[in-house]
Amino acid sequence: MSNHHQLDVSRVIDADPQRLFEAWTDPQMIVQWWGAGGITCPTAEVDLSVGGTYRIANEAPDGSVMWITGTFSRVEPPAALAYTWAMEPVEPHTPVSLVEVTFSPQADGTLVTVRQTEIPSAEAREMHLDGWRGCLEGLERVVRTSSAPRRN
Question: Which residue of 34, 35, 51, 147 has the smallest Cβ count within 10 Å?
C-alpha cells in the first residue's frame, strides 16, 4: 500500500481555455495570481516546453522565500499541462509530486482542474489543497479584473 496522497480541486472560471492556459504559464501573469494564505509570488520563470523547467518564488509574510520547481512532461495548449513539483533545493531525498492541470470548456466558462499525486503525507496534502484553492481564487480574480476579453 502506498503512503502517497492525491488531491483534486476544480473551479469554473468565466474565461476561455486559451486565456486561462496563458495566465497559468506566463510568468508576468503568474505573479499576479499565485499564492494563498498570505503567500505571494515576487517572480516566476517558465520554459514552456516538454522537458522545460519552471521556478516559482513563494514569499511568506515574514519575507522568507521558498522556491517551487519542476519539469514539464505535457504541454498541450490550451487544454492541459503536466509537470513535476518539488521544493528547492532538489536533492535525492526531496519529495517530488506530479501536477496535472486541465482546462475544459463549459457553457459558463472553463473548468480548471488541478490533480496533484505522489504527495508524501496527509498533512502536505491538506497544505497543497488549501494552496491550490487559493491559487484558483486568485486566477479567477485576475482574469475577471483584467481588461482582456473573457469568453468568445
Answer: 147
